[in-house]
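Run log // design_07
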C-alpha cells in the first residue's frame, strides 16, 4: 500500500508542471469550475487516514503533509472525534494560495473499529428536527462531535481574508454539505462546496434553505453506477431530497451538468470509490484544463476475462486464476489496482459451476 501512495505523489508531481496543482485553483469561480472539481476530488481521496498510516510523521497532521504538500496545500489541523463520541469523524483544515480548504474523510476501511463507527453513523438515518428542518441524525451527530474545534480552527485560518472551501467523498461529502450549510447560516462566507458521491442530508425544507444560501457555489458530483448518492431511501420519501446542483459523470468521461440524479439498473460498487471519480473527471476535463492538472495515478486492471454468467445471480463469472499474483505485481509497480467487476471463483468450485454456466452472448 505504501508503494501506491509514493506512486500517487510521483504522478501528482510529474508531467513538467511549473507550479503545484492548487496554484491553478479558482478561489471565486461563482459557479462550476472544472479545475476545482478535479483538484477537490484528488484532495478528497487523500483525506483517508488509511492512506497515510504507514508514512513518516509524529502525528496524522505530519503524515498528511506527504500527500498535500505536493499539491500546494499546507496542513493546518487534523481533527478527529474521540472514541467516546462514537462517530469516528475526521477532518483536515488546509491552506492554499488564497484559500482555506476543509476536507472531510469518508467511511474508513483500513481500521475495523473506525469502519464500524462510520457505518453506525450512516445507519442513523431517521431524521432529526433541528431549527425547523429535518436532518440526517447520524450526520448531524458526526459533525457535532468535531464542530467546536473545527469552527475555531477555521475562524483563525480565514482571518487573513482567505476564501473558505469544503469538500469530501461519500460520508465526507455529506458532512461537508452539512458544515457548509451551518457556516452559511452563521454568516461565515463559504466560497464553495464540491462533493463526490455524497448521500442526502435532509428534507425539502433544508434543501430549499441550502440552495438559497449557497446556490451554484454547491456542486454535487455523482455517477449513474454509484448507488450511494441516492441514499438514504425511506418509505417517507419527502424525508430526504436531492441537494444542490447535481452533475453526472460516467466512466467514459461523458458529463451531464445540472441534471437529475439517477442510477443505472445495475449499479457497480467500484464506481463509488473516490479513485473512480478522479479518473472519470479527468477524462471529462476540457483539454486546456487537463494541461494544468496532474494525471491520476496509473491503473492496473486485474484479469477480467469473463468465461460465462453466474447461474444464480446473472453476473459475469471469472475464474480466480492468477489474481493474487497480478494484484501483487500491480502494487509493486505502484499502480492503482482495479478489481475485476465479476464474480471470481476458486478453481475447485469453478469446475462444479462450469456445468451450470450460461454461455455469454457474442459481441456484435
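design_07 sequence
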Amino acid at each position: 500500500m505504501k508503494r501506491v501512495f509514493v506512486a500517487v505523489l510521483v504522478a501528482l508531481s510529474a508531467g513538467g508542471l511549473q507550479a503545484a496543482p492548487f496554484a491553478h485553483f479558482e478561489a471565486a469561480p461563482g459557479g462550476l469550475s472544472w479545475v476545482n472539481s478535479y483538484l477537490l476530488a484528488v484532495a478528497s481521496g487523500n483525506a483517508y487516514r488509511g492512506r497515510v498510516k504507514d508514512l513518516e510523521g509524529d502525528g496524522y497532521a505530519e503524515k498528511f503533509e506527504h500527500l498535500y504538500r505536493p499539491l500546494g496545500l499546507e496542513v493546518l489541523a487534523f481533527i478527529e472525534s474521540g472514541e467516546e463520541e462514537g462517530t469516528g469523524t475526521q477532518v483536515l483544515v488546509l491552506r492554499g494560495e488564497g484559500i482555506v480548504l476543509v476536507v472531510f474523510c469518508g467511511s474508513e476501511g483500513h481500521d475495523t473499529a473506525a469502519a464500524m463507527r462510520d457505518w453506525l453513523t450512516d445507519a442513523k438515518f431517521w431524521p432529526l428536527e433541528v431549527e425547523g428542518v429535518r436532518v440526517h441524525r447520524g450526520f448531524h451527530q458526526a459533525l457535532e462531535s468535531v464542530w467546536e474545534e473545527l469552527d475555531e480552527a477555521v475562524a483563525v485560518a480565514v482571518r487573513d481574508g482567505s476564501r473558505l472551501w469544503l469538500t469530501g467523498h461519500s460520508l465526507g461529502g455529506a458532512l461537508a454539505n452539512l458544515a457548509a450549510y451551518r457556516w452559511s447560516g452563521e454568516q461565515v462566507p463559504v466560497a464553495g462546496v464540491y462533493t463526490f458521491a455524497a448521500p442526502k442530508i435532509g428534507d425539502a425544507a433544508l434543501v430549499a434553505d441550502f440552495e438559497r444560501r449557497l446556490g451554484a457555489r454547491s456542486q454535487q458530483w455523482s455517477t449513474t453506477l454509484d448507488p450511494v448518492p441516492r441514499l438514504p431511501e425511506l418509505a417517507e420519501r419527502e424525508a430526504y431530497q436531492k441537494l444542490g446542483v447535481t452533475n453526472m459523470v460516467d466512466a467514459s468521461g461523458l458529463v451531464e451538468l445540472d441534471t437529475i440524479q439517477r442510477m443505472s439498473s445495475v449499479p457497480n460498487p467500484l464506481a463509488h470509490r473516490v479513485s473512480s471519480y478522479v479518473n472519470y473527471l479527468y477524462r471529462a476535463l476540457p483539454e486546456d484544463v487537463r494541461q494544468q492538472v496532474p494525471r491520476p495515478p496509473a491503473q492496473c486492471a486485474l484479469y477480467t476475462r469473463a468465461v460465462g454468467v453466474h447461474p444464480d445471480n446473472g453476473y459475469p463469472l471469472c475464474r480466480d486464476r492468477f489474481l493474487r499474483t497480478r494484484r501483487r505485481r500491480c502494487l509493486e509497480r505502484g499502480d492503482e489496482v482495479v478489481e475485476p467487476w465479476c464474480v471470481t471463483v476458486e478453481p475447485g468450485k469453478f469446475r462444479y459451476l462450469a456445468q451450470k454456466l450460461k454461455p455469454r452472448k457474442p459481441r456484435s
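Residues 298-364 form one domain.
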